[in-house]
User: Fold this.
Amino acid sequence: MDIKQYFKRKAELIDAELNRLLPADSETPQTIHQAMRYSVFAGGKRLRPILAIAAGEVFGAGERELLPVASSLEMIHTYSLIHDDLPAMDNDDLRRGLPTCHVKFGEAIAILAGDALLTQAFVTLADYETSYPERKARVISEVARASATKNALIGGQVLDIQAEGKPVTGAELEDIHRGKTGALIRCSIRIGAILGGANESELAALTVYGEKAGLAFQVADDLLDETATSEELGKTAGKDAASHKATYTSLYGIHGAREMAERLCREAIAAARNVERNTEVLESIARFIVERKS
Ligand code: GRG
Assistant:
């Protein structure tokens, strides 16, 4: 399996779908639509939508449902990046290799572009066509919960802010990232499986895969923050150490964090193999997550 080729092919499909779903630059009020598109099309690996598609394909889900649902995840992810970069949060000026949304469009429009992407994600989820309305209702609930506060995106961000400058234990760090990074990754896998009609034991196995892969992604992110350049990452490297944030590398060292990422990757693959279907692509994505260079 050439995973780079797989990512390239799926990213093209997702970008075409995002282009269809997002209001055109020329729609009034133009500034907000330009800002939304600027951040969404600035680049990005499209990891969350690709995870949803790969999980869906394991169970034979169709593109009619997978593409809009997967694209809604990228809208939410991009909203979280725009807000995370704001002066009131991480105060960063580089994202996806370009000036951040607030640097380019001003703070007020950047806040609204984040809000608008989150809202547009739920417009997309409410409106996509399907012959499986019960699966659709479940998918909307899953995405809403992952974006909310309890063991979820916003809650994780709050824990992260509150932990700044304080000593943090391994368990506390895991709590932060289970919400901040892990919830959307876990949700991506689950909604792909739900769209494909996975049964409860298949869903449980892939949930474990999603949790392990989500944590592995964060450990790899912390390693890259220490070992890669800003050019390679498209965002400011070394930011965590500079702002005295607890990370997997500050807690366990580079060697310990690398071992942890590899262990989580093996556990993710083992969980995927509990599903009696072809999970080769998910296994390759787990490896990609820990071996990636950006
Ligand atoms: C503001 C509600 C709110 C949440 C912010 C996503 C997030 C939570 C913060 C981003 C800060 C950060 C660097 C987190 C580490 C993990 C992460 C989400 C990295 C960026 O994701 P990638 O590598 O980015 O998938 P691309 O650009 O490839 O999509």
The longest strand covers residues 94-95. The chain has a mean pLDDT of 96.
